[in-house]
Specification:
InterPro entries: UbiA_prenyltransferase (IPR000537). By secondary structure, the chain is mainly alpha-helical. 73% of the residues lie in helices and 2% in strands.
């Protein structure tokens, strides 16, 4: 410090202090961003499990919805905490985050969620997304052969759809006597999450291309991928609507109609990659994709009160 009471920026000790504190602040900020980046998708997962209970016409167990959300949070945080080549381009805001602390938080969330589900003999379902998530992120190595789910065209989207579809339907339909509604819900959410994951691939085209990840937009092109997603979306909702009308699944037309419209808007507006996604576009995308289930439940509640 100089004689006039001001900080002397030429002092090496001062420069070291500034650099160290800047690093700590940057690291803390990145870590907090990493921890909060999975919150919305986990909350959305809880509402999806609740919707699955409604469609299967099973008694809703609130603790199971919460446990499911904790496991979803753990798996997505685990994925984002493990550095991958494409993430250095797609998620630069996570650079410098404390992976160890994030993994610790993810482990705690998973243990709590798995314990709750285990009390109702659902421990296998709890581990399903964790095991698949590890295979998706890191893969398995057998000598010179490496199995990694991120590499092939559409494989990642299929794995995401099947895993989370089975997870959601498995929790909600665990006590159902008729397996058909559970199977329909599995196919419905499996398709929806396939589509959603492909929509997010459009946001990461640059990083995936550089890393050699053959996602649908990279392999099929934007237009063909958009047509495929729209076709899958319309077929899945039309199928569920048919079984809704004949009473096989719960009578939830408001939820299904909102899901149909939200998906169409999402596919039409967010399957065109942009170099930099502004805050307004990101907010709209998050509202339509991750916020769809909670918005649908809110709309159902309001509609019920009015009618």
């Amino acid at each position: 410090m100089s004689s006039n009471g001001l900080v002397n920026l030429s002092d090496p000790s001062v420069n070291e202090y500034v650099l160290n504190n800047f690093f700590i602040n940057a690291r803390t900020t990145a870590t907090l961003y990493l921890l909060k980046s999975s919150l919305l998708v986990s909350i959305s997962g809880a509402f999806r499990i609740y919707i699955a209970f409604l469609l299967i016409q099973a008694e809703c167990v609130a603790l199971h919805c919460i446990a499911g959300a904790l496991i979803i949070y753990a798996v997505y945080t685990l994925d984002r905490a493990m550095d991958t080549e494409e993430d250095t381009v797609n998620r630069t805001e996570l650079k410098g985050a404390s992976a160890k602390f994030a993994l610790f938080v993810a482990l705690i969330c998973f243990i709590i969620g798995a314990f709750v589900l285990a009390t109702d003999n659902l421990l296998t379902i709890a581990f399903l997304p964790l095991v698949t998530g590890y295979l998706y992120t890191k893969g398995l190595i057998f000598g010179k052969f490496r199995l990694r789910l991120k590499g092939s065209m559409g494989v990642k989207n299929t794995v995401v759809g099947l895993t989370w579809g089975a997870f959601i339907a498995g929790i909600a339909g665990s006590s159902a006597e008729n397996m058909l509604p559970t199977l329909l819900v599995f196919l419905f959410f499996g398709t929806k999450l396939f589509v959603n994951s492909a929509v997010y691939d459009f946001k990461d085209v640059k990083g995936d291309f550089m890393a050699g990840i053959r996602t649908l937009p990279v392999s099929l092109g934007e237009k063909n991928t958009r047509k495929l997603l729209l076709f899958m979306h319309l077929v899945s909702h039309s199928t569920l609507m048919f079984f809704l009308l004949n009473g096989t699944v719960g009578h939830e037309p408001v939820i299904l109609f909102y899901s149909l419209l939200a998906g169409i808007v999402t596919i039409r507006n967010f399957t065109r990659p942009v170099d930099i996604e502004n805050k307004s576009r990101q907010t709209r995308r998050l509202f339509l994709v991750d916020g769809e289930s909670s918005s649908a439940i809110g709309l159902k509640t309001v509609t019920g009160l009015i009618i």
